[in-house]
Amino acid sequence: MSYNIVPQLPKAPLSRRAVAFSIDAGVVWLFSAIISNNWFTFILFFVIFWIAIRVVMAYKNQGQSLGHFALDMKVLDSRHKITPNILELSKREGILALAGSLAMLGMSNCTSGNAAVLLLIMPLFLDFTVALVDIERYQQAFHDRISHTIVVGTMRGYSLDIKLRWLLDEAKRYMR
After folding, report:
1. What are the residue ranges of helices labelled H in 52-159?
2. What percent of the chain stands above pLDDT 90?
3. SS3 of 158, please?
4. What is d(CA 97, CA 102) in angstroms, rounded to the nearest whole number?
5. DSSP string spanning 61-90?
6. Contact at 8 Å (CB) between 67 and 54?
7. Are 98 and 90 in contact (CB under 8 A)?
8. Interior CA angle at 93 toward 91 and 97, to 5°?
9. Scanning 92, 101, 157, 172, which has its CA 20 to 30 A from the CA of 124?
10. 121-to-80, 101, 110, 118, 127 alpha-carbon distances in Å
11. How far, in whole angstroms, is CA 111 from its chain's centroid?
């Protein structure tokens, strides 16, 4: 009797996914903030740059955006375990682009007088809350479920988190 054994892909922890998202969002925010002069152009440029980095770059780079490459992760189609096509990546990242642009707009315009703009973070928070309460294997967020994608660890990347941990350990050792 032969069994068809399918290897389990390494699940990417939510903390690493959040940092990878933050790297991409920070880069896109920087370019969008430099070019834009009002909230509408900020959202427009944020979405354009987000699609460029998270769809086009990920499609051409085996499912890795800048943040995913830095932390050794990639996006896969959950059904076929291959790099998603442009349509699936566009659905996934369209949701994240809108939620991310609103969150960045809220954080960059927050002052003590208008802290209500922090409510713009809620769509992004709700998207990732789905992953926190997910009891399935890959902790899929809302955008992952809609586009049938998963985020897994990979051996291909820069290993930024490991290098930073090593530098921190070295700094602690020199402090003693």
Report:
1. 57-60, 66-70, 86-108, 122-133, 142-147
2. 61
3. coil
4. 8
5. TTT--HHHHHTTEEEEETTTSS---HHHHH
6. no
7. no
8. 120
9. 157
10. 33, 9, 11, 6, 10
11. 26
